[in-house]
# Entry
Amino acid sequence: MIVIPTHMKISVIGTGYVGLVTGAVFSDWGHDVVCADIIEEKIAMLKKGVMPIYEDGLKELVNKNVKEERLSFTTDVAKSIKESEVVFIAVGTPSNQSGSADLSAVWAVAKTIGENLNDYKIIITKSTVPVGTNERVWEIVKENSPEGAKFACVSNPEFLREGTSIYDANNTDRVILGSDDPKAIDKIATLYEHLNAPIVKCDFRSAELVKYASNAFLATKISFINEIARICHSAGADVKVVSEGMGLDKRIGRAFLNAGIGYGGSCFPKDVEALYRTSSDHEYDFRLLRGVMDVNERQKYFYIEQIVRHFKGNLSGKTFACLGLAFKNNTDDTRKSVALEIVKMLRGEGARLRVFDPAAMENAKKVLGNDVIYYAKDLMDAIEGSDGICILTEWQEFAEIDLAEAKKTLKKAVIFDGRNLLDPASVRKAGFEYFGIGRR
Ligand code: UGA
# Structure
């Protein structure tokens, strides 16, 4: 536990990735935290020490802080608000039909906060919310709170990644605090000062946009390198070498330049689209983002085409070992997973599938069902008797595949590496045909 100068009583509303990790980390920093959610099953699980999500180190962190009585869980949202001086809104903001963010959960929480405002509180939005949301939160709280009630609102977007969220929370590159109330900003800044990260103090709208602009920029890097991979494919260059070479320029950086089957997950697809909607709402056509989304959508077809071409246009009756189902490594999350979309596309082409993911099997089953899909016990079980290996998620385990062992049980020694995890030369040396994304 870190000894912090200002001890706070904190309520975090919403126990998804952001809420749960934020609550656990704040309690570990020494604050009194109650995590509240209206979903009873989730709270019941958490009270028993069972995590609703797979996240490295989360269970240990939660259980340690519960034991030391700094962290608790409740479905009584009203009570959690009344007993706290700082209230974090960390509910989901999924896409609605038009692609913009569905803010109904944020509005509902703001109303509940207003109705339970018994003394001065700072209300902080952690959820990813479009420009103008925090101003509306302020209004809703005001409309629903007793006459003369005092409060402040602060926008404090979260930048943690699934799979490394606890590390990210303790090692953030920056803290963004947006508000029209400088005193509230200064108070919330004390929560983060021990991290020694730059703290950007600004207005609501700029803070809200930092989050969307950051996610959209990272997504742009991925679509950019995926386009470069297409050129590498046609021109006989190697995208890995190109991204290494580009990344050595400090102005560019090496991160998020891994070409693959396209970005997925619960954030990038939703946030890029929501930012595009925001720009349209302000009568601006954000052309670049249109391109980013278009490239991402097409990338999986590029991958599938290589497989179809290799099997001369007919995948019917062929069996593929699909390695990876999660949207990325170190998570069981399959939301907007391109891996799952590829599995469905291969099935649509008449292929049989033997799938394996170190963490996401259960979540994938809910989406894929059992039709022509065999859920393998492990990597080698998935490979057995297959006509080819499709690497779909960037798990380290797949990068370390024992090629000699795999070759013994495969019908055909061919690998379609959708994440560029393997070294083409070594794979070919082991007697395989190799197809990557823009590899030589
Ligand atoms: C992303 C951001 O990285 C976080 O900073 C942000 O807080 C989070 O969204 C959010 O808004 O909540 P996350 O969705 O956990 O985090 O996943 P990333 O690690 O960013 O990966 C997103 C997708 O891009 C994955 O499908 C991944 O496989 C893909 N990717 C990533 C690539 O294809 N190439 C790369 O070089 C990097």
About this structure: The first strand starts at residue 9 and ends at 13. The CA atoms of residues 161 and 168 lie 7 Å apart. The chain has a mean pLDDT of 96.
